[in-house]
Every structure is written in C-alpha cells, then in structure tokens.
Amino acid sequence: MIQASLVHVYGTLLPVALPDLVVLLAGSIFAFLLAYFCTFGVIRLCKRMGWLGKHEEGRARDQVPRLGGVAIYIGFVVASLLFYVDGAIPQKEITSYWLLLAGSLLIVLVHAYDDVKGLKPRTKLLAQTVAVIIILGPGWTIINGVTHYLFHGVLLFGFSNPFGVAIYHKNLPWYYEPEITLFIHQPVISWLAIPAILFTWFWMAGMMNTVNLIDGLDGLATGVVAITGLFITIISWTLGQHSIAILSAIFTGATLGFLPHNWNPAKIYMGDSGSQFLGLCLAVLSIIGGAKVALALMILGIPILDVAVVMISRVRHGQHPLHYDKTHLHYRLLATGLSVRQICYLFYGLTILFGVLALQLSRVYKFVGLGLVVLAMIALIAWIDHHQRQRGPDSKLAGPDPKPRQNGGQSTPPAETLVESASRSLNSELS
Q1: In which element (H, E) is residue 94 found?
Q2: Contacts with 335 (C-beta within 8 Å, 6 or more apart), sequence order
C-alpha cells in the first residue's frame, strides 16, 4: 500500500501516496476522533428521545443512553472508507470488507432496535445467523465458461497446524501439513463445506455473544476489545499484512474513541448494538489473513471461558443459556469488594499479558499459553471463593427479581442463590 491510493472525498477521487504506517496511524486517530465526537450526538439524541437504560449493578447510578454502538460503527465505517479502501488491496480482501460492512449494518440496526424496544433472543439469534451468511458471501463466478459456486467472503475452513512443517510438499502426511482443513481446501459451496460453515457461524456468533455478556461493567468490554484489536493490528503488521493491520487499527481507534464516554461512571452504554458489532468485527479480523484465531483465543481466553462455564451452569440449573443473572466473573469480583475500575484494570492487565504471550509463543507453544489462560481462570475463581467464604454473606450479589419460567411457570431462583451454586459448578467444570 505504499502505492498511490484513491480516497473518495465529496465525490472527488484524490490520489494520496502515503506510507503504510502513516496511513495506519492517521486512520486510527481519525476513527478515534470521529467516534469520540459522534458519541456526543448519540447521547443528545437518546436523551431527547428518552432512549435510556435502566440502572444496573456496576453501572452509573443515573439512567444513561444505550446506543453507543452506533457511534462506534459510524467511526469505523467512515474512517475505513477513507483510509482502508485501496486499489492495491487484493480483491478477496476488499470483498470480505464490503460484506463485513453489510453484515455489521444489519447487526447494528437490529440490536439498536433491541436496545430501544426490546427483542426476543430468538429474533436476535436469527439476525446473527443472517449476518454470518452475508459475511460468508455465497455466490457464483464464471471461469472459462464454467460456473463455480464459491464463498466470496470469510469462511473459516482451515487452521495453522502447530505440528506441521513450514512448507508443503507432495506425499506429506496430513498431520504434518502446514494447515489442517475441515474437509475442503477451497471455499467452495458443497456438502463437504457444512462443517466449515457451522464452525464459522459458531465462531462469529460466539464472539458476538461473548463481548455482549462481558459488557456488564462500565468500560470493561470496550477496553478489552480495544486491547484485542491492538494485538491483532500488531500481529498483522509483523506478518506483512499491512492492509489488514490498517483495518484493525481503525477498528481499535473507533473503539477507543468510545471509551472515555463509557469509563466509570459511564455517560453512555454501548448497548447490544455495540457489543454485537465489536464481537463480529473481532471474529472477522481474527480470520482474515490467518494466524490470528489462536491469538484471539488466548487474549480473550478468560472472557470466553467465563461465558462458556456460566452457560453450562445455567443449563445444569434448568435455565436458558442466555438467562440474565450475576454469576459472571466480573460480577463475582464486584461482590468481593473490588471497584468497577479495579476490575477493569485487572481484565485489561490479563488481556495485555496474554496478548504479549501470544505474540511471543509460536506454533505448539501456543497450547502452553492456552493452558496458562485456564490456570489463570481457575486461580481467579479460587480467590473469589476464598474471599467470599472469609467475608460471609455480605459479599453476595443481589440479582434480578425472580421471573416465571416459560416451561411450567416455575420461579427462577434469585441470583443470590445462583452465585453460591455457580461457585461449585464453575470449579467442577474447570477441574
């Protein structure tokens, strides 16, 4: 991208020849400023329309707007159109970018409506699925008069093999190949592609819901996502994938631009429109270019483990996996007496620590890093349980009012009981 790029400004194409690093810094700063100032407009609009969120534990006391995700999305889209879209970018990558914009627009619109009016979980899951299909980009192309049905977007069908050789050659056993694939070696539309499609959906939908579920304290999800985006930027740059690094830097800048407004006490929440959008972008950025899925797993390992184990705990107690309660790790840390800012610093520190390890560890040693993530999760849970036993009942969390369940009309146990039961189940699941 040292070559001249074409930037569309007020209908005029202006040639801009800038080194990649300058474009990266300029794009991220522009995204930061745009998201920062757009948030003021979103706050004013939400207050005028009465789109205010209810008070939650670990949140600001007063009712605050919930549509911060709209400002992040605007900052990312405008900055990326100005600084990322480049004639030198490979067609496959630029196609994935346009599909990401289309899929994320659907996510932001649907979940912005959810933030204001409310939607059922099934409707939101349907929107996530449609967004994933859009980003997959199923279609056809004609080559030499023959029609080929392909996925033109982002499909996760191969992984870097930590035990494989660096360069592929013929007659190589599958377990030594540089990449392990899910039945297909090209993004072709066929029955064999079903496992790859399902895995891609699971990764993207899982990342969206992970960011959504850790967005429980002021500034927590915003900071963790921004740090993760920064490390994706760094590893993309070191791999020579400068265009992907620029896109990731713009994403990081837009997220950081929202953080001052979301810092405790928050003036605005990102809402589901923000958390779902951030999760989707992280999922896509970790796939394109390759070699980043393991990085994302390490950096977001503790939030991912927390979401997984809490969902398992809820299912074991006969609840919906997305049932609202206060058994997540950040709520349990809040119950120990830590402040919201201290919990954010703890998560930020762990995210940076595992990000640095992910950059340093290579190939098979990444399994060691993932093991360290699990150990850190176990240590946190053990410390919380020990602290709660020492403090006694004063450290318990007050949860939402019990609501009737759909099946049979039984009452859902309050979160105070769930914290005690989840403590045992979390330890058992991780041990």
Answers
A1: helix 91-116
A2: 326, 384, 388, 395, 396, 397, 419
Q: Which amino acid is at 124?
A: K
Helix 366-391 to helix 301-316 angle (10° resolution) is: 60
pLDDT band at 124; cut points 50, 70, 90: very high
Nearest CA among 219, 212, 90 for reference residue 152: 90
Asked if 30 contacts 82 with a C-beta cutoff of 8 angstroms, the reply is yes
Planar angle of CA 348, 340, 415, nearest 5 degrees: 110
For residue range 362-404, list pLDDT tens digits in order: 777 777 888 888 899 889 888 888 787 776 554 444 444 334 3
Count of CB atoms situated within 10 Å of the CB of 246: 28
The DSSP secondary-structure symbol of 67 reads -
Residues in Cβ contact with 89 at an 8 Å cutoff, skipping those fewer than 6 apart: 1, 97, 243
Tell me the per-residue pLDDT of 237-289, one tens digit each, with 9 for 90 and over: 998 899 999 999 999 999 999 999 999 999 999 999 999 999 999 999 999 87
- Is 318 in a helix, a strand, or coil? coil
- Read off the pLDDT of each residue in 336-354 and give the average, rounded to a whole number: 93
Distances (CA, A) of 248 to 99, 132, 220, 242: 16, 19, 20, 10
Structure tokens at 264: 């405790």
Q: What is the mean pLDDT of residues 308-336?
A: 79
* pLDDT above 90: percentage of residues in the chain: 48
User: Which residue carries 């609501």 as its tokens?
Assistant: 403
Q: Are 370 and 364 in contact (CB under 8 A)?
A: no
Residues whose CB falls within 8 Å of the CB of residue 424, separated by 6 or more in sequence, listed in order:
none
Q: Model's pTM, two decimal places?
A: 0.84
Task: Yes or no: say if 370 and 297 are a contact pair by the CB < 8 Å rule.
Answer: yes
Could you tell me the sign of the dihedral formed by the alpha carbons of 217, 220, 222, 228, in that order? negative
Q: Determine the length of the chain.
A: 431
Contact status, residue 220 vs residue 344, Cβ threshold 8 Å: yes
Partners of 16 in the β-ladder: 5
Nearest to 156 by CA among 179, 178, 139: 179
